[in-house]
Amino acid sequence: MSLNVFYEGLDDFCRKFLVIGSPTESTDPAQFLRQRGEVAGTLFESFLLFDAVSLKVHGENLPLAVLLSLMGDKAILDLAESGSLRFVLWTPMVAHLVDDIPGIDPLTFGNLTSPAHTDPEESLALGLSRYTKELHTSNRRALVRKLRDTYTIPDKKLAGEVVKISKSAYESGRLKCYGLDPNESTYRDVPLKKREILSKCAGSLLEYKFALSNNMTSYSNRDFYEFLSQSCGRLASVEGRLSGFSTLARLENIPDLKSVYAQIDEPFVKMIALRKRRSSRKFRGWLAHAPYDAVAPEDLSKHYLDALMKPLGPFQSKGGKLAKSIAMTAIGAGIGLAAESPTAAALLGGLAGVAAVGSDFGLDIVDQFLLEGITKGWTPRVFFDDVRALEHREQK
């Protein structure tokens, strides 16, 4: 299994700061810089942790112009050639009627049909025209030629299907928590002031259903996914794995990847080099198959330590429990950091446990653990070592 993440944040950023007349338009320079940094940090993290990132695009590919300013054309081509960078040309739309006409369906839907919304090459050409720096003609052609095949266009039936789902959810009372109560008004008589809420729900469902239909996970805000029984499944995996990764980063006493991004020079150049390493490829595969739970991200700690100790087998025997305790000190994770997570602390053990049972075992067990359990072969810790080395090089 590989994870293809559907990310809407860069498109939202572009529509907010680069599209004149957008409903979310902002000209605040401080807000622009802050959100640009947040989006860039998320992209840096995503390309390191997941196999592919699919970026939502409305018509002209403004996200491409931003990516060019962040990482340059060579890095973009590299990501596209490896199948790691993709685009979703967003055509479906759901809106609500602003005229208060009783008995009329409050939602309307359709698909955008302009060349920019239906032709990847047109979308790319318009996006490249917004890139202000000089780009050689051959490089521009190479980008269009390579990126046009990375586009996905949603099914034309998607918007209509989502409106039907939204109507069913309203009539069954699943939207009561948002103030949409069928006991107060029928679906066709939803008051004007509540139609916007219903429309937002349907708009979020568009992204949700698209992600499910294309075997993607998503960074999307799941506020409006709660009424779907499937909502805590595939889409929760990004949130759960990111939370779990943060737990492991704390145990390894390194910053999260967004913080690393902010600390280093040419972060995307170094990200490309790091994600190509065998250790990074194996780590992405390991993370994709790892158990996840957004509620209890520390559960990933057991899976992580099991992977570190794989040559010795599961932590079940008395010797295995000793090795687990030794692992706490051997991998350099502080007891105090582990204590932030009760489950992780219980799994990792403590120095007192090592002292209590250490006299029953020879030092050769420790040596065997260090040589076979960590340094021999690949473990997911190699990825953290690479990140730690990157951070240290920058500090020097």
Describe the structure.
The protein has 396 residues and is an alpha/beta fold. Helix content is 57%, strand content 7%. It has helices spanning 9-17, 29-49, 62-81, 115-118, 120-129, 137-147, 158-171, 192-213, 236-251, 257-263, 267-276, 278-289, 300-308, 318-330, 335-338, 342-348, 351-357, 363-375, 381-395; strands at 4-7, 52-57, 85-89, 92-96, 107-111, 151-152, 217-218. A five-stranded parallel sheet has the order 6-3-2-1-7, sandwiched between helices. Strands 4-5 form a two-stranded antiparallel ribbon.
Order of helices and strands: EHHEHEEEHHHEHHEHHHHHHHHHHH
Distance between the termini: 38 Å
By DSSP, the count of extended strands is: 7
Total of domains: 2
Q: Order of strands across the biggest sheet?
A: 6-3-2-1-7
Number of contiguous helices:
19
Strand content: 5-15%
What is the mean predicted local confidence, pLDDT?
79
The main pleated sheet reads as:
5 strands, parallel
The best one-word shape is: globular
What is the percent of helical residues? 55-70%
- Coarse structural class: alpha/beta
Low confidence ranges: 229-234, 311-317, 328-376
CA-atom Rg in angstroms: 25 Å
Condensed summary:
The protein has helices spanning 9-17, 29-49, 62-81, 115-118, 120-129, 137-147, 158-171, 192-213, 236-251, 257-263, 267-276, 278-289, 300-308, 318-330, 335-338, 342-348, 351-357, 363-375, 381-395, and strands at 4-7, 52-57, 85-89, 92-96, 107-111, 151-152, 217-218. The chain is an alpha/beta fold and 396 residues long. α14 crosses α18.
Describe the SSE topology.
Elements (H helix, E strand, L loop, with lengths): L3 E4 L1 H9 L11 H21 L2 E6 L4 H20 L3 E5 L2 E5 L10 E5 L3 H4 L1 H10 L7 H11 L3 E2 L5 H14 L20 H22 L3 E2 L17 H16 L5 H7 L3 H10 L1 H12 L10 H9 L9 H13 L4 H4 L3 H7 L2 H7 L5 H13 L5 H15 L1
Parallel strand pairs: 1-2, 1-7, 2-3, 3-6
Antiparallel strand pairs: 4-5
